[in-house]
Amino acid sequence: xxxxxxxxxxxxxxxxxxxxxxxxxxxxxxxxxxxxxxxxxxxxxxxxxxxxxxxxxxxxxxxxxxxxxxxxxxxxxxxxxxxxxxxxxxxxxxxxxxxxxxxxxxxxxxxxxxxxxxxxxxxxxxxxxxxxxxxxxxxxxxxxxxxxxxxxxxxxxxxxxxxxxxxxxxxxxxxxxxxxxxxxxxxxxxxxxxxxxxxxxxxxxxxxxxxxxxxxxxxxxxxxxxxxxxxxxxxxxxxxxxxxxxxxxxxxxxxxxxxxxxxxxxxxxxxxxxxxxxxxxxxxxxxxxxxxxxxxxxxxxxxxxxxxxxxxxxxxxxxxxxxxxxxxxxxxxxxxxxxxxxxxxxxxxxxxxxxxxxxxxxxxxxxxxxxxxxxxxxxxxxxxxxxxxxxxxxxxxxxxxxxxxxxxxxxxxxxxxxxxxxxxxxxxxxxxxxxxxxxxxxxxxxxxxxxxx
Amino acid sequence: xxxxxxxxxxxxxxxxxxxxxxxxxxxxxxxxxxxxxxxxxxxxxxxxxxxxxxxxxxxxxxxxxxxxxxxxxxxxxxxxxxxxxxxxxxxxxxxxxxxxxxxxxxxxxxxxxxxxxxxxxxxxxxxxxxxxxxxxxxxxxxxxxxxxxxxxxxxxxxxxxxxxxxxxxxxxxxxxxxxxxxxxxxxxxxxxxxxxxxxxxxxxxxxxxxxxxxxxxxxxxxxxxxxxxxxxxxxxxxxxxxxxxxxxxxxxxxxxxxxxxxxxxxxxxxxxxxxxxxxxxxxxxxxxxxxxxxxxxxxxxxxxxxxxxxxxxxxxxxxxxxxxxxxxxxxxxxxxxxxxxxxxxxxxxxxxxxxxxxxxxxxxxxxxxxxxxxxxxxxxxxxxxxxxxxxxxxxxxxxxxxxxxxxxxxxxxxxxxxxxxxxxxxxxxxxxxxxxxxxxxxxxxxxxxxxxxxxxxxxxxxxxxxxxxxxxxxxxxxxxxxxxxxxxxxxxxxxxxxxxxxxxxxxxxxxxxxxxxxxxxxxxxxxxxxxxxxxxxxxxxxxxxxxxxxxxxxxxxxxxxxxxxxxxxxxxxxxxxxxxxxxxxxxxxxxxxxxxxxxxxxxxxxxxxxxxxxxxxxxxxxxxxxxxxxxx
Lengths: 453, 632
Prior knowledge:
Chain A is built from 20 helices and one strand. Chain A is mainly α and about 450 residues long. In chain A, helix 6 runs parallel beside helix 9 and helix 7 runs antiparallel to helix 18 (about 350-360). Chain A is globular, with a radius of gyration of 22 Å. Among the domains of chain B are: about 25-355, no CATH class; about 555-595 and about 605-630, no CATH class. In chain B, a hairpin with a 7-residue loop joins strand 7 and strand 8. Chain B is globular, with a radius of gyration of 38 Å. At the A-B interface, helix 4, helix 14, helix 16, helix 17 and helix 20 of A face strand 20, helix 10, strand 27, helix 11 and helix 13 of B. Chain B: It comes from Branchiostoma lanceolatum (Common lancelet). Chain B: Keywords: Membrane, Signal, Transmembrane, Transmembrane helix. Chain B: This is PIGT protein.
């Protein structure tokens, strides 16, 4: 977040393609420098950057277990998926130096994907605006998108991803969160391009890797159905339903294929419990920036299962009301889901939130209706700075206790929730103004205010 | 003739009775009791009691290594029934208070881990080892008043290399590696409540014989005190065609006379056991007291009364002189019994002690409560012999071990390549981490084994009452076979009884060493917070849920402030501060007829605008300005 305003400035003042080169150069340079510095080791153990699922220490342990001929899924030290494990195992066997290059490349590719997502979503929004403009109020011209955004927004997004200190630190920590961002960005890109085969594959890869993107399939299916059906799309229409089912079927077929592929290296499905089961049951109560750890540390034993269900449902449930409310805007829905899962997942890291932040510029046209942006930025900065400080006070100096760190994670979650709900509010309000004009018609002073009914 | 009838009948009856007794008594058993006293150079005095019951059980009776223990004579029935029930082939239980200091005291007769340590081999026919183990631990827990019932899967492991069967393991007794179960309870406190049931297993209890010396108050007022029960099948004779069941009950203590007396190592039974011996246990075949007088070359102490015998042993050039009191031949006086009394001429001079050839120390490394490390130093002080050892580490699940950080190197920095590494990763709340390494220690070297671990965060209910005291990690075990016996207190004995160890001439000496237990602290949550945390976290979730619920189930519309004005105090305030969006009074809501599903069709505003228009005149400019500002 903190890098974003800076990145926002750059392309506006220098709208030259060179800007891209600068962003790439700066982003990669910062990552490379940080990786080679002695800070890298410290970053690897930062639990804000690396959860038990994505931590590089655990990945190293997994690789070492493989070396000893022990399945990493036999114990409880390794929770990354088998395909990623095999990939990194091969890389580390070929040449150890490939690992940092791999992580650099992952972030680079994610940046490019985010850039492409920006271009495609902007184009999609403009096209959609073209189709719908006849319904808009004649007064709301000032609210319309312009072609200029096609240039600036993707660059902003690229900058927001590659120059965000959180992604830089996350990359230098070799956290596989970067990989998670890559597959999610891939899913977003494939979704916006509207190719069913590719989109279902991409969402399957994303949900194979990070579990929660499973819910992405709902907006993706709606988007594809709307592309196919045009204006005739409705949940009651049999054709639309067929299209939705086809997409869902494609997704699960791909997922089944990926699972079958993961069966091969170890000849068992134990990994499913260690990856998916681990994320769903959240047995590891190591602190992270999420809401699960302290809640389940302090939970009464007989309510544990109940609240586990509630928390996991909470992470995925919003897809349904949003699908109804935002049925004409599946892309916005999809982007909101990226943010929502980044807050409510069981093992979140800064990297997850950073991906959502880099998607924000696409919705820059809604920002003027946002209410708590300043508060959110302050809370973000507060939690990013205080999290490591209070962690050290608790764990190393013993002068603080768990509540201090817990307070930071609460503030962090609240900030993200404010940001998400505010964005949704701004989006809905802009949609309202597009149709009803930016201010009530027949001016001359009306006692009129906005209200939610 | 009439008189001979009953006599004949009686004779026949007598013969029958003899036959019955014979068949019952044909399962012969034998009991011996021994005590070894060694004054250490470091000033402490070691007393080691060993009570051995050998029982020629008919193993083949049950088929396989299965035995059915019946008709108990000397063998304790309570234990025998447990062994039969859970089909235990070999069982070793030690309950220890204090830490054996290898570098000062050499090697103990039987090494034991601080706390409770239990390992058992089950018979091959046992199908559900976990079930049998669960039953055994619970039964022993009741039998010895120890917390052995707290042994569960999180503290149990199946080491493949370190704990081989100590008795017979072939033919009838062959078993599977999976039938070994090993567990420790490093936090177990051992005291008189464990001693009382233990001594009840002895044939003479504590009424007579060596066991008469057990006075709990004295036994536990020592630096080290260890109880042991060891059960194993052994060869009945040299040909080893038949087997016997051997029960060894062991009690060791290390007293520290110089600390309590005027710096002298004076030791006597009366002082340290507050009793003297009145005679042997009538059931015992052997009843002996050995006092190691090897260090008395220069008559530095006097031993009273005179021993019945002085014995010299020599293994591999290492001489040992033992004073033996055979209780069967000792002339016990009616008034006072046998009180072995050592009187030293001088105070103990604390000079340099020579640690044994092989010993080990273990430490916790690192700081903070996030990560940590364990480091063991393995000393091989032999000038030219390499030593092959098995090192075993059993870590509880909450210290998550990183195998990739395992490093074996000498203190000079040369890497030592382990010959074999066996690692079983742990699972949270299920299995411990088990590491076994086979390596060769170079001669005259110190080898360092180190690795790091991650401290887990437990649920608040999983912490013990004194959470900040920390958690104990059981001692690591070093197993090896030494080729020289010069450091042994008593060379380990393959045969039964102490004398087989004291006076034998083997060339291989199996050795097991236990390291220090470790105490590590885990990060703790705030135990007073459950309600607060549940409330606060749920509030944050409610913020998300409430906002999203609000935004997805309601829609925007323009509201008439004039109408809002009539809504009372809140509306008035809203107007005053220009925050009309909070006004929710009934009368400013739209009529339900105007609902429309699709936002696309929501744009018909004529009615709404008319509705708004009616109020036009009533606007005050100030409010409009504020409302415009808000929209911007």
